[in-house]
Amino acid sequence: MSLLMTTSQTVGPFSRIGLQWLYRDRLFADGTRGVARRVSGRILDGEGRGVDGATIELWQANPQGRYPSPLSSPCANSKLEGFGRIEASADGAFGFHTLKPGALGADQAPHMLVAVFARGLLRHLVTRMYFPDEGANDGDHVLGSLETGRRETLIARCGDDSPDHLLWDIVLQGPAETVFFDC
Amino acid sequence: MSKTAGFRRPMVGTQPDYLSPGYGSSRLRSPTRPLVLLLHRESETTGPLFGADLLGPSDSDLTGQHAGEPLGARILVSGRVLDENARPVVGALVELWQANSAGRYAHAGDSHEAPLDPNFTGCGRVLTDERGGYRFTTIRPGEYPWRNHYNAWRPAHIHFSVFGPAFATRLVTQMYFPGDPLLPWDPIFNCVPDEKARARLVAQFDWECTLPGRAMGYRFDIVLRGREATPLQPAAGGRS
Ligand SMILES: [Fe+3]
Fold first, then answer.
1. Confidence at residue B235, expressed as pLDDT on a 0 to 100 scale
2. Does the reported pTM lie above 0.90?
3. Residue B24 CB burial class (10 angstroms; 0-12, 13-18, ≥19)
4. Which end of chain B is more exposed for a tag (fewer CB within 10 A), N or C?
């Protein structure tokens, strides 16, 4: 038997009500060993204005390059490491703390999956964030499939203040538009 | 490395385009470049695991989260979370949020001049059971005006967010009520041309789940993407 997928609808402007209980801007428990990174950026619309009230979800492998394997569910104990959910402020600014994912295999550079939910988005947008100064980026099968100029929208920049600080903007529309995926 | 099956792309017509001119907020927020096809690897086929430890006793009863009873018509909303292969999605996190009976959200940004209800926050969450089933007790939400176009009113709706087995199955949608006269006028509900796809966003009155003298029941099933056929592998003994 086959069913058809439910039609996606926007989260609207008030998603904070329903999603806020699970906001977490630290993807790993304090004390977890790994390369710590603080990421900050803004979500911008087609006129360069900050997108207000957006929720961003993040998903990545742990510093050993592993994802949790689904157990028999429903499970008693949650496993949320590597998962983040954050809210952008009124001017579109967001930030989170994470550990760089470990090696994922020959043709995959360390990356995180990013989903954007906001008023105006009838379906959420899916993109990826990659890390700067990462040799494996050259061999990544996703980055390699993108044209120069667009590929760079997925790679965070180093902040000026500290090597731990990365900058990465999400541009929904326009010349600097971020690459979004049919995921 | 484990070879996990990816998920099927949604059928044409079931999902909205990003640019939907009737919905004003989509104009400056929709990408103009075509989406890049992403083959599913572990990043897409895995996801966080949500457990019972996250949930509190009144999380699925939006009428029982405060000292008093909220105003409005109490309703039960139940259904199943299934995938496109009609298999139950067990342990899915279902989150819900909505306006109160007067059409006002308990959100600082909601400027609609309708009363807040001190006994209603309008949010809840639950994990699906072994049959993929879920159930909420809540209040029928009110319609509310918005600024999308002249004299625009949103039909009564409940926002649903579902976390299935993988990041690739993530879904956020809205549930509507049967017979709502605002449905033909709403650009969000009408974002897909397929009438049947829209009809699936409308809950059905559910007499069997209606509590006599207490609460009308509505049924709303949610379908997540189905897995592609598993890559061929040696039979592990027995039929499956
Ligand atoms: Fe709404």
1. 45
2. yes
3. middle
4. C
